[in-house]
Design a protein that fits this description.
The chain has 327 residues and is of the alpha+beta class. 22% of the residues lie in helices and 26% in strands. It contains seven helices and 15 strands. The protein has helices spanning 27-34, 39-47, 120-128, 160-171, 244-251, 272-285, 316-326, and strands at 14-18, 51-53, 56-57, 69-73, 90-94, 98-103, 151-157, 176-184, 191-195, 198-200, 208-210, 218-226, 230-237, 290-298, 305-309. The strands form three sheets. Strands 5, 6, 7, 8, 9, 12, 13, 14 and 15 form a nine-stranded mixed beta sheet that branches. The chain has a four-stranded antiparallel beta sheet with strand order 1-4-2-3. The protein has a two-stranded antiparallel ribbon with strand order 10-11. A hairpin with a 6-residue loop joins β14 (290-298) and β15. It starts with 13 loop residues before the first strand and ends with a helix.
């Protein structure tokens, strides 16, 4: 497949993709990847009739074939209507192209139904002043996300060139992302990898699940410490799916401590002294025990290798100290 031309994707021009060989992704996913757009924005362009395949409007589920000629009309970018808000966020690194920030637990990354304000995006507009528009009206600058209850490191794009480069790095798995997690029970192996596809749970639409027809998902785990009824685990992402770490740990029978979605009430299943320890540990953690602790990538403009680490925040750190002292 030929690459798209190099002009900006938000300047109100037409883009051409010529499919040279069959691809497995449907049209909206292909546009998202090739033009560094969010899936939502790609689907909107298709629904609005701004995408044609061989001069015909088609659906987002269309599977491109060899020889297809895809034309995309990209409307001019409109200034974001999101309001900057003075929400505290720690900025770990910033230049004219991008920034690395530490998201606190409990903060939603971008506006969505039910969360129109008070998000990380609103905070970033206040602290950084500008964000790339490529992610769309509600997700400017957002290259990757963290769950609301997950804390830790994120890289965000201030300019479009950085957004495209970072998005390409994610697709090529060149951005290293590591987590610290506490998992209930004791893992059978010191090191292991879970390679199981993840898709939307058919019964619970707000949850994800292991599904054979889901998207490929790979997570690498290493046990760091063994406590009374839980393990401290280092996690390295091979892919980046929604709830990936949480779903993969749940799939091996050791869900993340204090996970309200995939491990509600899990600590009560231990019984006896182990159960009492688990309930006390869960109370001390007080939140999902998942923290994005490592982030490393090559700067999309300068090529400089950047690496960051983040310590466990309170109360997770206090919970770890208690677990060590009682195990």
């Amino acid at each position: 497949m030929s690459p798209p031309d190099s002009g900006p994707t938000d300047a109100g021009e037409r883009r051409l993709i010529e499919v040279e060989e069959a691809v497995s992704d449907r049209l909206d996913r292909l546009l998202s990847e090739r033009l560094a757009l969010s899936r939502t924005r790609a689907a909107r362009l298709i629904a609005d009739g701004r995408v044609t395949v061989n001069d015909r409007v088609t659906r987002k589920r269309y599977l491109p074939r060899a020889g297809d000629r895809i034309e995309v009309e990209l409307p001019p970018a409109t200034p974001t209507r999101l309001e900057p808000e003075a929400i505290p966020v720690r900025i770990r690194y910033e230049d004219e192209h991008l920034a690395v920030v530490e998201k606190p637990a409990g903060l939603v990354v971008h506006p969505a139904p039910g969360h129109p304000r008070g998000t990380l995006v609103n905070a970033l507009l206040f602290h950084l002043g500008r964000l790339s528009d490529i992610g769309g009206d509600r997700r400017p600058g957002i290259v990757h996300r963290l769950d609301r209850d997950t804390s830790g490191l994120m890289v965000v794009a201030k300019r479009d060139e950085a957004y495209r480069g970072l998005s390409a790095g994610l697709r090529r798995r060149e951005i290293e992302r590591g987590y610290l997690a506490a998992a209930w029970g004791h893992l059978q192996e010191e090191r292991f990898t879970v390679d199981r596809p993840i898709g939307r749970d058919r019964q619970h639409r707000k949850r994800m699940a292991i599904r054979e027809d889901g998207r490929p998902a790979i997570t690498h785990f290493k046990r760091l410490e063994r406590w009374n009824a839980a393990d401290l685990v280092a996690v390295r992402l091979g892919t980046g799916r929604t709830h990936q770490v949480r779903v993969h740990l749940r799939s091996v029978g050791h869900p993340v401590v204090a996970d309200p979605v995939y491990a509600a009430g899990w600590e009560r299943g231990f019984g006896g002294a182990g159960g009492r320890w688990a309930e006390a540990f869960g109370r001390r953690a007080g939140r999902l025990f998942l923290h994005a602790a490592k982030l490393a990538f090559s700067h999309p403009v300068t090529g400089e290798r950047l690496s960051f680490s983040s310590s466990l925040p309170s109360p997770l750190l206090e919970a770890v100290e208690w677990a060590r002292s009682t195990s």
